[in-house]
């Protein structure tokens, strides 16, 4: 066990010793802080963030919506400083208005359900899936309690960027874990080391995975702290319906961000394993980076018709797709032996299986390179 620890620390040192790794970490750290500080936001936006909190704790019912409609007159009324407090509420209500602008509370709640039905019909859900979602919808407290959610929404939105950083971090910083040994002609020295080839491979994999996971978590923390420092981090206990009214997930933003974080960590493990496996196979860092970035770009630009459900859901399992806010209105479930599961629940299992497959494939390539 002691020798594995020594190898592990040595492999971590080699990863950090790269000037490219240091540059990438510094750039991504700066990006996480800049995103959280929202440097593009002006004084008006900061003032709105303060004003929208004044309605916290009120329920979105006839009285509150009628008061807002009377004060605004029309959606253009939000431009008046005295109406800044309605910014988040107006967004929530008008999102379910079918383009009709300001609507009543009764219309808001009826439109929510209509939008759910329309989306489920478009997605081709089965009767069983529709019933499953009806049960989740029943768990949502109604009338919905207003809680200003702009800061929580910002954190949830930028988590997709944190996940993308994880892909690039693994593709750039771990692509040379094995390929670098061949490039420097140190592979034979590595194979003849006194600790053994299996232990050496395990240490490299452990170092790469821990490097990727730790930095993903640190980027996430930096993002959250930066948002908190700039405008506060309230709204975490707000229902996700404040942003996406017709979502049937009975979740708060804190719970959704927790799901995002779990998926980001699982994805960090998977992409680290993938990068190192490809490094052992290709023996070329540039080929590893090109392959991983190409797969990511393909997942963003390919548009699989909904009728090809399996392929469409497979593409949406790409972590940056899966944790986007719009995923809260993807009602497609996965049926396993008669039990329905959300994509959020299945993704960590899929990522874990793929991680193991990548590690095993990399091990085979590593051993074959010695023969």
Condensed summary:
By secondary structure, this protein is an all-alpha fold. The chain has helices at 2-17, 19-37, 43-51, 62-72, 87-95, 105-123, 127-138, 150-173, 176-183, 187-191, 197-231, 253-282, 285-301, 309-316, 319-322, 343-368; strands spanning 334-336, 339-341.
Fill in the keyword field for this structure:
single chain, 371 residues, globular
Plain-language structure description:
With 371 residues, this protein is mainly alpha-helical. It contains 16 helices and two strands. The protein has helices at residues 2-17, 19-37, 43-51, 62-72, 87-95, 105-123, 127-138, 150-173, 176-183, 187-191, 197-231, 253-282, 285-301, 309-316, 319-322, 343-368, and strands at 334-336, 339-341. It has a two-stranded antiparallel sheet with strand order 1-2. A hairpin with a 2-residue loop joins strand 1 (334-336) and strand 2 (339-341). The longest helix has 35 residues, at 197-231. It is globular. The two termini are 27 Å apart.
């Amino acid at each position: 066990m002691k020798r594995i620890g020594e190898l592990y620390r040595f492999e971590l040192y080699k990863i950090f010793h790269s000037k490219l790794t240091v540059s990438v970490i510094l750039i991504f750290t700066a990006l996480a802080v800049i995103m959280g500080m929202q440097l593009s936001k002006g004084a008006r936006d900061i003032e709105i963030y303060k004003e929208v909190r004044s309605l916290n704790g009120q329920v979105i019912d006839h009285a509150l919506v009628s008061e807002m409609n009377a004060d605004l007159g029309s959606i253009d009324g939000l431009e008046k400083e005295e109406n800044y407090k309605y910014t988040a509420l107006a967004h929530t209500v008008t999102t379910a208005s079918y383009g009709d602008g300001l609507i009543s509370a009764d219309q808001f709640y009826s439109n929510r359900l209509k939008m759910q039905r329309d989306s489920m019909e478009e997605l081709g859900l089965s009767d069983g899936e529709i019933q499953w979602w009806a049960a989740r919808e029943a768990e949502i407290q109604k009338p919905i309690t207003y809680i200003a959610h702009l800061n929580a929404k910002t954190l949830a939105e930028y988590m997709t960027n944190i996940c993308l950083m994880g892909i690039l971090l693994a593709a750039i910083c771990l692509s040379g874990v094995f390929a670098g040994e061949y490039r420097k002609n140190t592979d034979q020295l590595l194979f003849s080391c006194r600790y053994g080839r299996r232990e050496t491979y395990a240490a490299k994999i452990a170092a790469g995975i821990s490097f990727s996971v730790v930095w993903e978590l640190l980027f996430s923390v930096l993002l959250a702290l930066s948002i908190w420092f700039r405008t506060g981090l309230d709204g975490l206990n707000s229902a996700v319906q404040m942003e996406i009214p017709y979502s049937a997930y009975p979740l708060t933003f804190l719970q959704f961000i927790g799901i995002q974080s779990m998926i980001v960590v699982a994805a960090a493990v998977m992409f680290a394993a993938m990068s190192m496996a490809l490094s052992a196979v290709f023996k070329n860092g540039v080929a590893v980076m090109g392959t991983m970035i190409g797969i990511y770009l393909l997942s963003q630009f390919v548009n699989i018709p909904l009728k090809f459900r399996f392929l469409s859901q497979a593409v949406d399992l790409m972590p940056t797709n899966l944790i986007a806010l719009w995923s809260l209105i993807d009602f497609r479930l996965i049926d396993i032996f008669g039990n329905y599961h959300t994509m959020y629940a299945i993704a960590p299992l899929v990522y874990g299986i793929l991680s193991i497959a990548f590690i095993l494939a990399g091990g085979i390539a590593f051993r074959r390179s010695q023969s």
